[in-house]
Design a protein that fits this description.
It is built from 20 helices and 21 strands. The chain is α+β, with helices and mostly antiparallel strands. It has two domains: 265 residues, no CATH class; 186 residues, Orthogonal Bundle (Serum Albumin, Chain A, Domain 1), CATH 1.10.246.130. Strands 1-20-19-15-14-9-8 form a seven-stranded antiparallel sheet. A seven-stranded antiparallel sheet has the order 7-4-3-11-10-2-21, covered by helices on one side. A three-stranded mixed sheet has the order 16-17-18. Helix 2 packs parallel to helix 6, helix 14 runs parallel beside helix 18 and helix 15 packs across helix 20. The longest helix is centred in the middle third of the chain and has 21 residues. It starts with 11 loop residues before the first strand and ends with a strand.
Length: 531
């Protein structure tokens, strides 16, 4: 239990239903649906649609979606991959002929065909109890009538002000006063409201065909993009078989590749073989082990994880205990390893994560993203849809598993999580923060299950992350200087992150009482609410 004399959050307890998101208006939208008889899937989609309006730098209908769902709280976890794909004309030879050597962010070539709306449609159809049209009404209201900008959202706006100002449609929509909005200022997105209303009326086709798709495709083609109306009409997400690993008597479920969930499971397998430090999770010795495990697991991710429809991803081998033992054995407990290959795709993505448990104990772990803050920084002129930049997860090297190809999905960083035990779901959870997410899953679960932190403490704990691009270790300012000095002495190159590392939400079902307990990350504006 936290020291009640210190600033902080307590876990939220409730008997019937609970929702936790990174924005209070989103959480409230989910709770409203639950109170009116909707189930966990209904609430998650309603909340996500709201976040695409009130937290537009993190998510939206121009992005992608992954979901894990435990119907009735069983351990028969359903997984859905709603990630977008490259246009049918996207080949490395085409880019080479154009003299394009990298998929730059604020260009049409960073934009894959968005998968979110198709995912919402399928998930609500198969697992919801309300219509998609009804679930979009709160988001439509905020887009049409306006919403106040919250502090973390204002911070994110300010960080991307130059990017938004560089594209006329984005500047007009997101910088109406010629600058980033300040906390408390009201924004309205009438074009986006009209698009959401069209989807509410027409369903999936309201986005993937007709005026909205024509607007997006025409805009991208005018900038040299390869996208076609057929690419949009054919974008359909998939139900997939989840992957899992056992950790401390629990089973942790993840979506399979092209997402990086396998990396989170690899990290848990590595850490399972280390003794638990009685001093807690924030000691130089423990931090060093986590950093080194992260560097090795992310190296393997970069070598192997891709779209399994195009590449042979050795999931079974990556998750074997023999592989975990080999990686663990490579770690020097006193010194940082040298000469690991560095990562080659873009950094600083953004995402929202939503978790909901309803009165029937349906458990939803739901994540939606436009990748970088404000995605590609490009907004379709008439529909108000800001477009993601997931295409930057591709490379143009024909020998790389993530080389771009027609209809191929890139390496994805977003990963919803679900924990089960003894035949029941016990915790839908997730961690935001782009590349950090797999590492964050390990830090959250080890804090909870190894070190006995409560659900809020496990989210609050100071964070650090071995950046797979530079080899540097990002360290939040809450980690004491003496610990930083000890890590530096071990050979780690420490830097302060440009913003707080990630964000998280989780809801746990008490196996004895059936009560719900939740946590929500103070690094974001959101909260957990139950009843």
């Amino acid at each position: 239990m936290r020291d009640l004399e210190h600033p902080g959050r307590s876990p939220v307890h409730a008997p019937q239903a609970m929702a936790a998101t990174s924005h209070p208006l989103s959480t409230q939208a989910a709770v409203d649906v639950l109170r009116r008889g909707g189930n966990a899937m209904d609430a998650a989609v309603a909340a996500c649609a709201v976040q695409g309006v009130v937290e537009p730098g993190s998510t939206g209908i121009g992005g992608d979606c992954f979901c894990l769902y435990a119907p009735g709280g069983s351990d028969e976890v359903v997984a859905f991959n709603g990630s977008g794909a490259a246009p049918t004309g996207a080949t490395p030879d085409w880019y080479a002929a154009q003299g394009i050597t990298a998929l730059e962010r604020q260009t049409p070539h960073s934009v894959t065909v968005p998968g979110a709306v198709d995912a919402w449609t399928q998930l609500v159809r198969d697992h919801g109890s309300w219509s998609l049209g009804d679930l979009l009404q709160p988001a439509i209201g905020y887009a049409r009538d306006g919403f106040p900008v919250s502090p973390r959202v204002a911070f994110d706006f300010a960080g991307q002000e130059a990017l938004l100002a560089n594209e006329a449609n984005s500047a007009a929509m997101f910088l109406p006063k010629g600058r980033a909005p300040k906390p408390g200022e009201v924004l309205r997105f009438p074009k986006l409201a009209a698009t959401l209303a069209r989807i509410a009326e027409e369903g999936r086709e309201g986005f993937y065909s007709g005026p909205v798709a024509e607007d997006i495709v025409g805009f991208l083609q005018s900038r040299g993009g390869l996208h076609t109306m057929e690419d949009f009409a054919n974008r359909v997400g998939d139900y997939v078989t989840p992957i899992s690993a056992d950790f401390r008597g629990y089973t942790v479920h993840q979506c399979p590749p092209n997402g990086q969930g396998v990396t989170a499971l690899m990290l848990l397998n590595i850490m399972a073989g280390f003794d638990i430090d009685p001093s807690g999770p924030i000691t130089p010795e423990r931090m060093h082990l986590e950093i080194e495990a992260g560097r090795l697991a992310y190296r393997d991710r970069n070598l192997f994880v891709a779209d399994p429809k195009f590449s042979d991803v050795p999931v079974e081998g990556l998750l074997s205990m023999a592989h975990a033992d080999a990686l663990r054995g490579a770690i020097d407990p006193a010194r940082a390893l040298k000469d690991l290959p560095l990562f080659t795709v873009p950094r600083h993505p953004d995402t929202v994560y939503i978790t909901v448990v309803d009165k029937d104990r349906n458990c939803c772990s739901f994540i939606n993203t436009i990748f970088n803050g404000f995605g590609s920084g490009q907004t379709a002129p008439e529909s108000g849809v800001i477009l993601q930049n997931r295409g930057m997860g591709f490379v143009l090297d024909a020998d790389h598993p993530n080389c771009i190809a027609p209809g191929k999905r890139p390496l994805h960083t977003i990963i919803p999580g679900m924990v089960t035990r003894n035949g029941r779901a016990v915790m839908p959870y997730g961690v935001m923060g782009g590349q950090y997410q797999a590492f964050g899953h390990m830090q959250f679960l080890t804090g909870l299950l190894d070190f006995g932190l409560d659900i809020q403490e496990a989210i609050d704990r100071p964070r650090f992350f071995p950046d797979p691009y530079s080899g540097q270790v990002e360290v939040e300012g809450t980690i004491p200087q003496e610990m930083r000095d000890a890590l530096t002495a071990m050979g780690h190159d420490l830097v302060r992150p440009g913003s707080p590392i990630g964000g998280a939400q989780a809801i746990m079902i008490d196996p004895e009482t059936g009560m719900l307990v939740a946590g929500s990350d103070p690094r974001k504006d959101g909260c957990a609410i139950g009843f």
